[in-house]
Specification:
The chain is an alpha/beta fold. It is 37% helix and 19% strand. The protein has 2 domains: 2-160, Hexapeptide repeat proteins (UDP N-Acetylglucosamine Acyltransferase, domain 1), CATH 2.160.10.10; 180-327, no CATH class. The protein contains 7 helices and 25 strands.
């Protein structure tokens, strides 16, 4: 295994391959043939079988990937333990590059405000399939094997068996962006979730990293990656805007205000619930582990945490929606 400029927590197992600019938290693992590129964070006990490619990928604790998978430009949450985890079947692909050469395609499988609490049903993406980004799925989603997911699954707990697409035969229309409002909304939501996750790392996870050997260095690596992931997503928005023609008011507005949009998508923060900070700080000081404490939070503490993080997401969404009224963004 070649490891270049990565941060590894305790008990990480990397069997073979190449990793650069990635962060592996305690107990994360990858089998042979791994190709892990910058902007990747594997949280506790996230793992993959052989020949997995990741880049700009965030996997929450326990997420499990099968073999022969290409799973870049996304965040995946869901599950409560190594026995109840989100899973991606072998030979799965997240399609993240368009014919127009842009990657405004980041997908959310689950979300940050609920996912960090490790109490949501797992997501299952069946093998020999794929997802065409950007898509969003709720927790508890089950996508049948051999299918390609092209649309959002906004409700939780849905079984999805997408039909084969109807045959289409028509002239190629470069940079048509027929669903521009949807693409922009999905990218804004993804960046807003990154803001929520960074706040969680800075205000809650930091309390636990402080008491671990090399913990501050691992935390620093994770924060650098979150910054890099954000920069990549904003870069891709700029590329998309550069492909557009001002053929209607919405497109003209996006072209004119893309730098304002980028500024509005900078990190949005807000103070974590004081009771949660005190609880986690005291527990970390007594040597308690992050996963154990999150698993023990009561209903009131979970509601407060989700409201805090959801507020960050909604604030960022609203800021951009007000900036681009002609696009009529729907979140």
């Amino acid at each position: 295994m070649t490891i270049q400029n990565c941060q590894l927590g305790a008990g990480v197992q990397l069997a073979g391959g190449f990793a650069e600019g990635a962060v592996f938290l305690d107990g994360a693992s990858m089998a042979s043939g791994a190709h892990i590129r910058p902007g990747t964070i594997l949280e506790e006990q996230a793992n993959g079988a052989h020949t997995v490619g990741l880049k700009q990928t965030i996997l929450f604790p326990f997420v499990t990937l099968g073999s022969l998978i290409n799973f870049c430009d996304l965040l995946m949450a869901g599950g409560t333990s190594r026995h109840d985890h989100s899973e991606v079947g072998s030979s799965y692909i997240h399609f993240n590059f368009t014919p127009d050469g842009d990657k405004t395609t980041a997908s959310l499988f689950g979300d940050v405000p609920r996912g960090v609490l490790l109490d949501q049903p797992p997501i299952f993406l069946g093998g020999q399939g794929g997802a065409v980004g950007p898509v969003v799925t709720g927790f508890g989603t089950v996508v049948g094997a051999g299918s390609v997911l092209r649309d959002d699954v906004s409700e939780d707990g849905r079984l999805v068996l997408p039909p084969s697409p109807e045959e289409v035969y028509r002239p190629v229309a470069p940079a048509s962006y027929r669903q521009l409002s949807r693409i922009i909304a999905k990218n804004v939501t993804y960046l807003a979730n990154l803001s929520a996750l960074e706040s969680w790392y800075r205000q809650i996870r930091r309390l636990f990293f402080t008491h671990l050997e090399f913990g501050p260095l691992v935390l620093a690596g994770a924060l650098v990656n979150l910054t890099d992931i954000r920069a990549e997503r904003i870069k891709r928005l700029r590329v998309l805007a550069g492909h557009l023609q001002p053929s209607d008011e919405g497109r003209a507005q996006l072209i004119e205000r893309i730098e304002d949009v980028a500024e509005a998508l900078a990190v949005v923060d807000g103070p974590a619930p004081a009771d949660l900070v005190r609880l986690c700080g005291a527990a970390a000081g007594n040597g308690r582990r992050y996963l154990d404490i999150i698993g023990e939070l009561d209903a009131e503490q979970r509601i407060a945490a989700t409201e805090w993080l959801s507020g960050i997401v909604e604030t960022q969404q609203q800021n951009v929606a007000e900036m681009l009224p002609a696009l009529e963004l729907r979140f």
